[in-house]
């Protein structure tokens, strides 16, 4: 079974540019999450999809960040325009959670390292 | 709100040494507790978990016990190997909330 995949693995852009990160969850997982780790600090929750619907986007830092999940499959996270403080590693995770939170494990992808110059 | 504090690294050990990584938490409810590990070039993997007080999670020789009285979930391994070199994250999740709250991570390097 394929795991969670993320693309690209690395992205270097200049301040003011736009970047789109992609996450492909494990097939059949309805729950998809985005997290971010900035400057070696803690990993912070950004948002949670259930199928194509945003269940919780309380962690999104500001309106420069836009997440979508087309047809309840893959998800994209767009940063427009990027700022220096957006640099970090963006992780995607997915889970089935057939019977409620933490019944099933959140499986993480390898992350996308974003550097904004 | 919820928060997790884990010991700062980096930690460097020799093979067969004993490893402890301290983790304490603050939670509004009664959380489940996790240790995730990130090996070089890979994604986060669940190492072990515990869902209620006094539960012990274990995997790959690692253990952690959910201590409600001290709000702790320290990770231990009696004899580390070079292959245990990784970043270790302590995390918690509330029962009615899907998101995980993580600590800052501890980088562990095991030397042969």
Describe the structure.
- The complex is a heterodimer of chains A (117) and B (112).
- By secondary structure, chain A is mainly beta.
- Helix content of chain A is 0%, strand content 49%.
- Chain A is built from no helices and eleven strands.
- In chain A, the strands form two sheets. In chain A, strands 2, 4, 5, 6, 9, 10 and 11 form a seven-stranded mixed β-sheet that branches.
- In chain A, β7 and β8 (75-79) form a beta hairpin.
- The N and C termini of chain A lie far apart (37 Å).
- By secondary structure, chain B is mostly beta strands.
- Chain B has strands at residues 3-6, 11-14, 19-21, 23-26, 32-38, 44-50, 56-59, 62-65, 75-77, 86-93, 101-102, 106-111.
- In chain B, strands 2, 5, 6, 10, 11 and 12 form a six-stranded mixed β-sheet that branches.
- In chain B, a hairpin with a 7-residue loop joins β10 and β11.
- Chain B is globular and about 45 Å long.
- Chain B starts with a strand and ends with a strand.
- The model of chain B has no long low-confidence stretch (mean pLDDT 93).
- The A-B interface holds A 3-4, 31, 33, 35, 37, 40-45, 48, 55-56, 59, 91, 93, 95, 97, 100-102, 105-111 and B 4, 32, 36, 41-46, 49, 51, 89, 91, 93-105.
């Amino acid at each position: 079974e394929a795991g969670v995949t993320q693309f690209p693995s690395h992205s270097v852009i200049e301040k003011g540019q736009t970047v789109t990160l992609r996450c492909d969850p494990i097939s059949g997982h309805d729950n998809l999450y985005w997290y971010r780790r900035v400057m070696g600090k803690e990993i912070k929750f950004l948002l949670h999809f259930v199928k194509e619907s945003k269940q919780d986007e309380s962690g999104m830092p500001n309106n420069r960040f836009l997440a979508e999940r087309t047809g309840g499959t893959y998800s994209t996270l767009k940063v427009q325009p990027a700022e220096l403080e957006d640099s970090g590693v963006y992780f995607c995770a997915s889970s089935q959670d057939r019977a409620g939170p933490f019944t099933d494990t959140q499986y993480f992808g390898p992350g996308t390292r974003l550097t904004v110059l | 709100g919820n928060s997790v504090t884990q010991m700062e690294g980096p930690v460097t050990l020799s093979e067969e040494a004993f490893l402890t990584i301290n983790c304490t938490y603050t939670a509004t409810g009664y959380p489940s507790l996790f240790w995730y590990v990130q090996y070089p070039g890979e994604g986060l993997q669940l190492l072990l978990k515990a869902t209620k007080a006094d539960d012990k999670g274990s995997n790959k020789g690692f253990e952690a016990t959910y201590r409600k009285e001290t709000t702790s979930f320290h990770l231990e391994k009696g004899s580390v190997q070079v292959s245990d070199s990784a970043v270790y994250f302590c995390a918690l999740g509330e029962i009615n909330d899907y998101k995980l709250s993580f600590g800052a991570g501890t980088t562990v390097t095991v030397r042969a």
